[in-house]
Each structure stands twice: as C-alpha cells, then as structure tokens.
Amino acid sequence: MPLAMGKGRFPKSDLSLEEPALALEGVSFAFREGALPVLEEVSLVVPEKSWVTLVGPSGCGKTTLLRIACGILRPTAGRVLIHGKAVDPRGKVAYMPQADTLLPWRTALANAVLAAEVDGRPLAEAKAEARELFQRFGLAGFEDAYPGELSGGMRQRLALIRTFLTHREVLLLDEPLGALDALTRAAMQDWLRQVWEALGKTILFVTHDVEEAVVLSDRIIVLSPRPAHITATVEVPLPRPRNRTSGEAVRLRAEVLRWLEKGDANGD
Ligand SMILES: Nc1ncnc2c1ncn2[C@@H]1O[C@H](COP(=O)(O)OP(=O)(O)OP(=O)(O)O)[C@@H](O)[C@H]1O
Ligand SMILES: [Mg+2]
Question: For residue 135, with 0-12 CB atoms within 10 Å meaning exposed, 13-18 middle and 19 or more buried, which class applies?
Fold first, then answer.
C-alpha cells in the first residue's frame, strides 16, 4: 500500500507499517461532467488507530473528500478501501458533518443514542454507555436537555458523543471544534484526544487551525486549492500530551503553513 503522495516528509516510524483502516486510491471527483473538478487523484492512507488531519484552503474539497470516504458521494475515478477492500464504507465509517445535525425535538441523551437505535442495538445498553460519556465529556446533568438549551460548545460535545456511539471504527470529523473560544477549544482538544486514546478509534479530521492539527495529529495532509490534490504530508512524531509551544511544535506549524502558502502561490 503506497503512503500518502506528496512532496512532504514521509514517516520514519511504525505508523507506516500498520494496516490502513481507510485508504483513498487515486480519487477524483467532479459534481458534473465538464465542471471544474473538486478532487484530483487524491491518494492517502489512514493507519488503524491513527489520527490523520486534512488542512487546506476554504472550498478546496475537504468536506467533499470526507463525504466520499463515508460513501455519501461516489468518486468519479479511484477507490475507497476499508482494510484494503473496496467495500461500502457505510457501516464501517461514521461521519460528523461540519454543520450541527442534532435533532432539536430529541433530548441530548436521545440524540446521543440515535445510531444505536437506527442499527437496532439494545437501547438500555447504549443509554448506559452514553451516560458514561456525558460524565467524561462534562455534560452530566444535561441528559434531558434539548439541543436548543445547550451552548455551542456543549452541542459540539454532544455531536461528538453521538459520533463515538456509532461504534464505527473510523471517524470522519469535519471541523468539530470550530467556532469556540481559544480556552474552550484547547480543553476540548484535550478531552477529544483522551477519548480517542481510550476508545482506540481511527480518525480522519478536518481543521482550519494548524496549531490544532499539530497538537492532535500523527500526520497532517496539506491540500491545494480546488481541485484539491495533496501538496505535502507532514508527520508529527511528538509524544502526547503535547505542548503547543514547544520548539518542535512551533517548527511543524510553520512547515504546514509554508506548504499552505505554497499551494496558493502556485495557483494550483
Ligand atoms: N452540491 C454541490 N454542488 C456543486 N458544487 C459543490 C457542491 N458542494 C460543494 N461544492 C463545491 O465544491 C468545492 C469544494 O467544497 P467543499 O465543501 O468540499 O470545500 P471545503 O474544503 O470543505 O471548504 P470549507 O473549508 O469552506 O468547509 C467548492 O468549490 C464548493 O462550491
Ligand atoms: Mg468543509
């Protein structure tokens, strides 16, 4: 299995030896024939239990890529592989969209167990698991509140709990910590990392915040402006929890920013 294409630094480590839970192979996509494509021959791998982050300019195709990875959209060319097989990603992959899709008429707890209900899993079990996650995510006591009664940060935590409770192995998270103040965001990054570690999930993440990408990811993939192709792949071989102001973190952040600017400068 080839590693992510691109001119960036390639992994020296163990990550590259692990079986990819998710891979895109030469994926191209256009919404209509003759329209400017959105994705151009994107190949990447997301190793099992790793955290891979996509960064790229607004409108380049990050959300489209996630929607292809979870099977909502079908690629115009190329393939999506789950553990090396071209199977339907639905059922294996959970997608948390950029926009809040909580159901306003359901309580927080009822929102959290939605996937269990749709999948026909025992509801009492799912609720017990949800209560535990409410505790861990600082939402205890809000089980019976409606989404409209929660703050933006609480709604995001609830949407994340719901995504974890899908019991899918691979989670696609589209800017899940957007629109939060810096302090709340840093705290949310930390508990998201802890839950990811505790539950052993594989994450493909999208963010506009390069510092966030460095604090959280094993690997950062930089996309060009539309049509998106991979400009660079940057490995982040730092132990966790990470210090966002360490020399190496700052250096990696500057490296990713340089690749982002380069993509713009080339106009490609
Ligand atoms: N349903 C659609 N039909 C036609 N074009 C679309 C559709 N959805 C998105 N696009 C276009 O595809 C391109 C990529 O959109 P996408 O939402 O994937 O970008 P993005 O990288 O997620 O942007 P952002 O960072 O702003 O969320 C954009 O130019 C957008 O206008
Ligand atoms: Mg998007």
Answer: exposed
